[in-house]
Specification:
By secondary structure, the protein is of the alpha+beta class. The protein is 41% helix and 27% strand. Strands 1, 2, 3, 4 and 5 form a 5-stranded mixed β-sheet that branches. α3 packs across α4. This is LPS-assembly lipoprotein.
Amino acid sequence: MSERPLPRRSLLLAGLAASLGGCGFRPLYGPSEAGQPAIAPQLASVRVGRLTNRTGQLLHQALERRLAAADRSGPAARYELTVVPQTAYEAQGYRRDGAPSRFRMVMTAPWTLQTIGVPPRPVANGNARAIDAYNYLDNEYFASLLSSEAAERRLVEQVAQDIVTRLAIAFRENPPA
């Protein structure tokens, strides 16, 4: 019985994995190397500060899901994350009568991570940004409302993922003492 040769895709993936191993690539959430602290418990020790309005509530929930999913052991909060999301709307498309028919939503969310203690010590900060769009359908208010809410949820999820990724990078680059 003769052996079948490996498919071309398998050979490419094996070569890619071998080359990434040599360049120092390591997964952000993967197991930590010797002497490096694990990222997941640090992410789980981040408390999300109070956020206002509906967009803030959605962002708070998305951040908590991602931070708690990193480690279920539930360590005490050591850090506080402060986020100030702001959403801007811009008309992009117009009907013949001049009424807008498509809107672009841009969410910017400056954030700051600091220690919980007196005095609080800044750990990291940044600015997350996401862009999405939705159609405003004439005579179909509820469809337009659902479309705008879905776009808002997508924005919130993108911003939350960006913030958590940047927090993980900050913890990896500057491990706590």
